[in-house]
Design brief:
The complex is a heterodimer of chains A (about 525) and B (about 160). Chain A is of the alpha+beta class and about 525 residues long. Chain A contains 15 helices and 16 strands. In chain A, the strands form 5 sheets. In chain A, strands 2-1-14-15-16 form a 5-stranded mixed sheet, covered by helices on one side. In chain A, strands 7-6-5-10 form a 4-stranded mixed sheet. A 3-stranded antiparallel sheet of chain A has the order 11-12-13. By secondary structure, chain B is an alpha/beta fold. Chain B has one domain: 3-Layer(aba) Sandwich (Rossmann fold), CATH 3.40.50. In chain B, helix 1 packs across helix 5. Chain B is globular, with a radius of gyration of 16 Å. The chains are: A alpha+beta (about 525), B alpha/beta (about 160). Chains A and B meet through helix 1, helix 2, helix 5, helix 6 and helix 7 of A and strand 5, strand 6, helix 3 and strand 7 of B.
Chain lengths: ~525, ~160
């Protein structure tokens, strides 16, 4: 906060002070501390030789979700959970609907399922497109050596051209219209009900959906070509993607269909080993037998790991229970893609990188392969004769007790687990969100980047960029905690000496300023 | 564009939208959403939009108007809860891109301008200093609730054409 004159300043209101401050120095007027319980915070502990002993990456978490939902009607869960996150409401909404199916012991009708999948495919395509161009894109499109100041949305637009930017926005808007058509407002969706959906798709709505689907396929192919031209055409990029500092050999988890192809909406949870090959396979409802959570004193996050292997610390390899989720993991666990064009893109990807792929930055490429699959799946669904059927919901009759749902959110496997009394009042809820499944590997990536960037006790501001690159590819989802103004997440890096005493703080605020204090 | 209103006070007739941000499930962060309903009652006919989404998801909410008035919660730590900050867009010097993952309102505005979409000429922020922004299902702080009439007054003035800060 820069209010150097605040004490002798007669100006009383925040707005007056803000304006005065701005006039003086064109600087921050709103402190970046938003709703975050702490900032994105990195603690680095040095060893005797001035290298990195340990590095901890902390992200904030919203408090009290489990307590909040206890005592509420379970049928509210699709609405409540979709409002805890400002970025992936549709993933929470859909997995909550699936958990309700299980809770009430009712299988959705074919039409009900097709409509859910339609909305989900549109959502995945929208989210992946936004991520590639505007969130992950700045690192890739701008080049590995681009200064931080150009690594942003505006940099991307200037590089790829305004037309491409407009294309992304337009595609996103039209995909979102499909979601709205079937399920009402995105942030308060009313689509998913136990046993199906709340509304049918009318015959005269299908043409619009087909047109969007066709255009989405073309858009995905265009995006893959852009990736080939800009990224694969540059050896500097390929070297960066495959560099050791951005690689970890862990297990991978994701949903596969009956042919072991990638599926976002349903299927078995499959786990492959760091050396490749299926290591475990289970139904979502059995997740507690396969996944466990580890607590570290320095983090709010509960780190998930494979129960059979146990928690061995933040280490790579076949002995460690750490696994990863999200696009890279989904492609690693599957034998391919269920649609022809995406399959071709998958083959190009595996031919270049092998299988399984351990390079974290390959997530960006995997995301585009999935974008194409989502678009093709949208096409299939739009052309399915039963999409417009009358029988879009099966009314549940069973007494509820316990239900578990699993889905692939854009950022990875997502579990919802509810227990209720016989009236359907929530007694217990457990959510394992995608970012949590990735959190152990993210912590390792951050530590590796820190180790690569610090030696002989020398720490400079560039380390922030290197560390951000390391966790950006995972697209960790903290958006629920960052929409309050100014909406950008600040990052604090604390360096501690061998005695654990604070030595140095480097802080980058939402205004872009970097502050260093001993 | 300004015309004389029936009271003789100049009223602006350009396109205006009040965008209220927040999450009514999260304690004080619901203030923007609560304000939306009150603003709608006070200003029938004025476009008032509530959003719990963030960043780029706001694209359609920020385009298509001449003036955008944003009501949102903020924690500056510099003022007691319930304080209302009225700011111009340029007061919040957020540099886009310091962290592409946390794209906020301002980056979204920069984007729509870069793409020459129908971006607003003027953005005014009415921010309410809040206290609890992390407790899901948490109660709204009394001091924050007491700010509501003031927020509605300020928004009404801004819509009518009062010159923003």
């Amino acid at each position: 906060m820069e209010h150097e004159n605040a004490t002798q300043d007669p100006l009383r209101t925040g707005a007056e002070r803000a304006n005065a401050s701005y006039m003086q120095q064109r600087r921050v007027v709103i402190d970046p501390i938003t709703r975050l319980e702490g900032h994105g915070k990195i603690d680095i502990f040095l060893n005797d030789s001035g290298g990195v002993d340990r590095a901890f990456f902390q992200v904030p978490e919203l408090r009290g979700f489990e307590q909040f939902v206890v005592g509420r009607p379970v049928e509210d869960m699709p609405q409540i959970t979709s409002r805890i996150c400002g970025v992936c409401p549709t993933a929470h909404h859909m997995v909550a609907a699936k958990a309700l199916d299980a809770l009430y012991g009712v299988e959705p009708t074919l039409t009900g399922r097709l409509i859910r999948e339609l909305v989900y495919a549109a959502f995945m395509a929208e989210d992946h497109a936004l991520h590639f161009y505007f969130l992950g894109g700045p690192d890739f499109v701008m080049g590995p050596d681009a200064p931080a100041a150009t690594r942003n949305v505006l940099g991307v637009i200037s590089k790829v051209g305004k037309e491409v930017g407009l294309k992304v926005i337009e595609m996103r808007r039209r995909l979102r219209e499909i979601t709205a058509l079937a399920g009402g407002k995105v942030i308060h969706p009313v689509l998913g009900l136990p046993g199906g959906v709340s509304r049918r798709i009318k015959l005269d709505e299908v043409d619009q959906i087909k047109q969007v689907a066709d255009d989405a396929v073309e858009f995905a192919e265009f995006s893959l070509q852009l990736f080939r031209d800009v990224v694969l055409g540059s050896s500097a990029y390929v070297d960066m993607i495959t560099s050791d500092v951005y690689s970890h050999e862990t297990y991978y988890m994701g949903l596969v269909d009956e042919n072991d192809k990638v599926n976002f909406y349903d299927g078995d949870v499959r786990v492959v080993a760091p050396t490749g090959g299926e290591w475990d396979r289970f139904a979502g409802k059995d997740y507690l037998d396969h996944v466990a959570e580890h607590v570290e004193p320095w983090s709010y996050t509960k780190f998930t790991y494979l129960k059979q292997l146990g928690w061995k610390g933040f280490v790579d390899g076949a002995e460690s229970g750490i696994y990863s989720v999200a696009p890279l993991a989904r492609l690693n666990v599957a034998d391919g893609m269920a649609t022809p064009r995406a399959q071709a893109a998958y083959e190009e990807y595996t031919k270049t990188l092998g299988m399984p792929v351990h390079h974290t930055l390959a997530n960006h490429w995997a995301r585009l392969v999935e974008l194409l699959y989502a678009a093709e799946r949208l096409q299939e669904l739009a052309n399915h004769p039963e999409l417009t059927g009358d029988d879009y919901r099966r009314i549940p009759t069973a007494t509820p007790s316990e239900g578990i749902g699993v889905i692939e959110a854009p950022r990875g496997t997502l579990f919802h687990h509810y227990q209720t009394d016989e009236r359907g009042i929530v007694e217990k809820a457990n959510l394992i969100v995608a970012t949590q499944n990735n959190s152990a590997r993210i912590a390792m990536s951050v530590e590796k980047a820190a180790k690569g960037a610090i030696s002989g006790g020398h720490v400079d501001e560039e380390i922030l960029n290197k560390i951000e690159m390391a966790f950006r590819a995972y697209d960790p989802c903290h958006a629920c905690a960052t929409h309050t103004l100014p909406g950008s997440m600040p990052l604090i890096l604390n360096v501690h000496d061998t005695a654990g005493s604070p030595m140095l703080e480097i802080r980058r605020d939402a205004d872009g300023g970097v502050y260093r204090s001993a | 564009m300004r015309t004389e209103g029936s009271t003789g006070v100049p009223e602006r007739t350009d396109r205006v939208r009040v965008l209220c941000l927040g999450n009514d499930l999260i304690a004080d962060d619901g203030i923007g959403i609560t304000a939306a309903e009150l603003i709608r009652r006070r200003l029938p006919g004025v476009a008032v939009v509530e959003e719990a989404m963030s960043g780029l998801y706001l694209i359609e909410d920020v385009i298509g108007v001449d003036r955008l008035i944003v009501v949102d919660a903020v924690i500056t730590g510099e003022a007691p809860p319930g304080t209302i900050h009225v700011l111009g867009e340029c007061d919040v010097a957020v540099v886009p891109g310091v962290s592409p993952h946390y794209v906020g309102l301002f980056e979204t505005l920069e984007l729509v301008r870069a793409l020459e979409l129908d971006a607003p000429d003027e953005v005014t922020l009415v921010c309410i200093e809040i206290k609890d922004a992390v407790t899901i299902g948490g109660a709204m702080t009394d001091d924050v609730l007491r700010a509501l009439p003031g927020v509605v007054d300020i928004v009404a003035d801004l819509v009518a054409g009062a010159v923003p800060v």
